[in-house]
Amino acid sequence: MAAYVSSLSLLKLLRNLPGGVSQGLIWGIMALGIYVTFRLLDVADLTVDGSFATGGAVTVMLILAGWPAWAALLAAVAVGMLAGLCTGLLHTRFGIPAILSGILTQFALYSINLRIMGMAANKAVSVDKYQLVLSSRNVPMAILTAALISVALVTVFYWYFGTEQGSALRATGNNPAMSRALGINIDHMKVLGLSLSNGVVALSGGLMSQYQGFADINMGRGAIVIGLAAVIIGEVIGGALLKKYINFWFTLLFTVIGGILYYVVIVIVLWLRLNSNDLKLFTAIVVALFLAVPYLRERRISSFAKFKRKGAKSDA
């Protein structure tokens, strides 16, 4: 045990942390998209595992075709929104449950992504040949770029969900029956929310493909779990730090921070030289722990309140 502890290099951990932060920011952007469906629409959308890879595939192929990197990202957002539109239409027009609609679209996107990449499982794009928005070759600049994009997205979301349409979308997820009674077309709101969510997820996929220098057909596998982990970690940490003072802007910001914290945990796990094949297990444990924290905290408070009431009755 002593030999194992002495073999761990703190310097190596510090060297790897910036890379974890940069990747965490990119996944945090993806978590913003998942937040729209998971928290605002109250829908478990599994499309994201496919649309994340779609964003990466579209971005890389268009850059290879001569498009500027920023234009390729915009195209990736548009294609991601189309994927969300398909899921929304399957759910609202054909009556397929939301979770199954997402699975069907994700399943179809596997073949579509292969065709986008010319039936190749992966495509590389080199920062030496193309002007990319960010790259792992320059981690500090990648962190700055991803952070600026994250803050811009959080600000745009904060503004948009305060508008009449954004408020209608939030109301749809909060109380569909009341929203329908108020004249809101909840089917349109669900389609809009799913499209918006997957557009942001595809943007994240496009950024990740540039950062790592390639797009892969399996790069979105498990994205929904990572996104949910970021959302939940962000909510728990934000609630613990700001408590009743947290507003919607900070909630969105802490969603991105949740992505960073998740990847920092992954970096630490790898630094501890634990088996990388167990990363899925560690992810599940981390998510379960953070999911349980609000429930256990609420239970502790209610138990304490009951104890106080019993004590007051005894004294009386």
Walk me through the structure.
This protein has 316 residues and is mostly helical. Helix content is 77%, strand content 2%. The protein contains twelve helices and two strands. α2 (10-40) packs antiparallel against α9 (186-212) and α2 crosses α10 (223-242). The longest helix has 37 residues, at 279-315. It is globular, with a radius of gyration of 21 Å. The relative contact order is 0.18. The mean pLDDT is 89.
CATH arch. level architecture: Orthogonal Bundle
CATH topology: ABC transporter involved in vitamin B12 uptake, BtuC
Biggest sheet layout = 2 strands, antiparallel
Determine the strand fraction and express it as a percent band: under 5%
Strand order of the largest sheet: 1-2
Which CATH C-level class is it?
Mainly Alpha
User: How many distinct domains?
Assistant: 1
Distance between the termini: 57 Å
Question: Secondary-structure element sequence?
Answer: HHHHHEHHHHEHHH
Total strand segments: 2
- Helical fraction equals over 70%
Question: What are the segments in which pLDDT stays under 50 over at least 5 consecutive residues?
Answer: none
**Please, what is the average pLDDT?**
89
